[in-house]
Write a sequence for this structure.
């Protein structure tokens, strides 16, 4: 069997790492890794390959940044040539980024089976580019691996045959559990003079939060209030950094004495920052899941989440783009009123093993493609 895996942007890398490691243990599987080049900076891409011991991509499409249409069309054109040449039995895609959707579309039109890892998540917010990517990918994919029962339910409602949906758990958590020991050795706290459980950690990159002056301003006002009580560490995504520069004078941030701005961090340093934080404010999808497993309170600066299990079972609280709510919930946590959590089923470090087992079985039964 020949599997071609696709990665493009930062959150893909931690999802693909355990899959590749598991696939490589199978003598009968030939594997090719394609990087679309959606993310290309060392800090956004290469550092993750090094730390997570992901083999160098066999092929890099080097598409880089651009508008949605430009990025997606370039990925599609370049990926088509690769898929035609490689002729894999399965194109394995993860998550919900532009690269996931673009390569799924190409593969299905060439008659290649598409397996989607992290299928079925829905925010029901069609303003999010990721929601459109999820809907398109799941409408064409052949094999669906879900992280939670709600995701399976969405797929069934959308007409996907039950026998093509596999509830396997969360590959992102495979990577988290695999790297906890290494992450504990990171010197990031010392280097930034931080004390365990004595700082809040912030990450922001969603266009809906950071692409408008009002949105970004609201969150900055909340951070300003929180940093009067506790240090705030903020590794800045490139999109957010350029918008901060465009919308606000430098002095706006400099006046916040307890705010520590950092470049995007590598996986191990960031994991260390997360596991030792008092709480996290984020608009990321993956961080909602990681904080749930780590037991760290998470305030999600969005109106909705495609990962509701982190609300019902985990540490996550939706605070919207609402300054007062962000500050109120942050203060509650500092006053020791955090949520109890339970780790969701199958978020146990073995999701990749379950996935590879299913792929091998489907291939044997010649059932890789949807009838
Ligand atoms: C993408 C994903 C998002 C994911 C996020 C993680 C889509 C639609 N969005 O959003 O789901 O959560 O990655 O980071 O696929 N840039 C750099 N260096 C890089 C990469 C990007 O400077 O290595 C800058 C570019 O100016 C670019 C901007 O960041 O225009 C945004 O990058 P892009 O990949 O378009 O989307 P993200 O916002 O990163």
């Amino acid at each position: 069997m020949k599997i071609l895996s696709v990665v493009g942007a930062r959150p893909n890398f931690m999802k693909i790492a355990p899959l590749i490691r598991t696939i490589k243990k199978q003598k009968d599987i030939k594997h090719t890794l394609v990087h679309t080049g959606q993310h290309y900076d060392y800090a956004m891409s290469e550092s993750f390959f090094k730390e997570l011991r992901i083999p160098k991509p066999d092929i890099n499409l080097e598409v880089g940044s651009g508008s949605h249409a430009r990025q997606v069309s370039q990925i599609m054109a370049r990926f088509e040539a690769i898929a035609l040449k490689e002729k894999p039995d399965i194109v394995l895609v993860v998550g919900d980024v532009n690269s996931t959707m673009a390569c799924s579309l190409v593969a299905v039109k060439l008659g290649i089976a598409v397996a989607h890892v992290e299928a079925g998540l829905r925010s029901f917010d069609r303003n999010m580019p990721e929601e459109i990517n999820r809907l398109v990918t799941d409408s064409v994919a052949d094999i669906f691996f879900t992280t939670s029962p709600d995701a399976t339910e969405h797929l069934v409602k959308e007409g996907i045959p039950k026998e093509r949906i596999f509830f396997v758990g969360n590959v992102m958590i495979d990577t988290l559990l695999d790297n906890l020991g290494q992450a504990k050795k990171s010197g990031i706290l010392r280097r930034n003079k931080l004390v365990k459980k004595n700082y809040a950690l912030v990450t922001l990159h969603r266009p809906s939060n950071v692409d408008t002056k009002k949105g970004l301003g609201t969150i900055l006002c909340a951070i300003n209030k929180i940093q009067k009580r506790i240090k705030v560490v903020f590794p800045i995504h490139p999109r957010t950094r350029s918008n901060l520069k465009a919308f606000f004078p430098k002095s706006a941030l400099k006046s916040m004495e307890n705010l520590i701005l950092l470049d995007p961090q590598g996986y191990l340093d960031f994991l260390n920052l997360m596991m030792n934080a008092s709480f996290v404010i984020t608009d990321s999808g993956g961080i909602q899941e990681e904080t749930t497993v780590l037991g760290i309170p998470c305030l999600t600066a969005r109106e909705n989440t495609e990962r509701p299990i982190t609300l019902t079972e985990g540490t996550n609280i939706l605070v919207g783009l609402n300054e007062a709510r962000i500050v109120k919930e942050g203060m509650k946590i500092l006053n020791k009123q955090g949520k109890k959590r339970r780790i969701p089923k199958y978020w146990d470090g073995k999701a990749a093993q379950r996935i590879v087992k299913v792929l091998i079985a489907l291939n044997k039964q010649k059932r890789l493609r949807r009838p």
